[in-house]
Amino acid sequence: MRRRTITPIFPPPGYNLTIPDWPVEQFMLRIGKGCSDYADKFEKLTEVFEADRFQMKEKGIPPKVRKYIFSIKEQLRRGVLTFEYLERRTSVTIPKKKATKK
């Protein structure tokens, strides 16, 4: 069996993610999907990025919204989505998978 070598990326994507000084309401409104309804649960935007699923659950955020916020955070960390893109957009939505007929 042949072994593959993977060259690591340095610095790892997302570890040098700079979070802008946006109000939480603005960020939640830009990512869309009703997240702006829960913007009052956080004081600062860094609190959104540092919160884990248990902390969000304690704040009363429903599972679908938590999952969506985590997916946006991961896309920002990986560089798939940028804050500059969010700044130009009013809201971003992830396309849903098409249902297949049986």
Characterize the structure shown.
The chain has 102 residues and is mainly α. The chain is 41% helix and 0% strand. It is built from five helices and no strands. It has helices at residues 24-31, 45-50, 53-58, 63-78, 83-88. The longest helix has 16 residues, at 63-78. The N and C termini lie far apart (41 Å). The model has no long low-confidence stretch (mean pLDDT 78).
Properties at a glance:
5 helices, mitochondrion, 102 residues, mainly alpha
Strand and helix layout:
Blueprint: H1 24-31, H2 45-50, H3 53-58, H4 63-78, H5 83-88
Question: Nutshell version of this structure?
Answer:
It is found in: Mitochondrion. With 102 residues, the protein is mainly α.
What is the total tally of β strands? 0
Largest sheet: none
Low-confidence stretches: none
The count of helical stretches stands at: 5
**Over all CA atoms, what is the radius of gyration?**
16 Å
The share of residues in extended strands comes to: under 5%
Approximate helicity band: 40-55%
Q: H/E series, N to C?
A: HHHHH
Given helix and strand content, the structural type is: mainly alpha
User: From the structure provided, what is the oligomeric state, counting identical versus distinct chains?
Assistant: single chain
* Global morphology: globular
Q: For the record, give the distance between the C-alpha atoms at the N and C termini, rounded to a whole number.
A: 41 Å
Average pLDDT value? Answer: 78
Organism: Paramecium primaurelia
Family: Belongs to the mitochondrion-specific ribosomal protein mS41 family.
Keywords: Mitochondrion
Subcellular location: Mitochondrion
